[in-house]
Amino acid sequence: MDLPTAQDLLPRADPGGRAVLRAVLAGIGGYLPETVVSNDDLARTVETSDAWIRERTGIGQRHIAQKHESCAFMATRAAAAALADAGAEAAEVDAIILATATPDEAFPATALRVQAALGAGGFGFDLSAACSGFIYALSMADAVIRTGQARGVLVIGSEVYSRILNWQDRNTCVLFGDGAGAVFLRAAPGTGLGSDRGILSTHLHADGRLGDILYVDGAVGQPERSGHLVMHGKEVFRHAVHRLSEAVDEALAANGLERDAVDWLVPHQANMRIVESIRKRLGLPLERVVRSIERHANTSAASIPLALAEVHGQGKLRPGQLLLLEALGGGLTWGSALVRL
Ligand code: ACO
Question: What is this structure's pTM?
Answer without folding.
Answer: 0.93
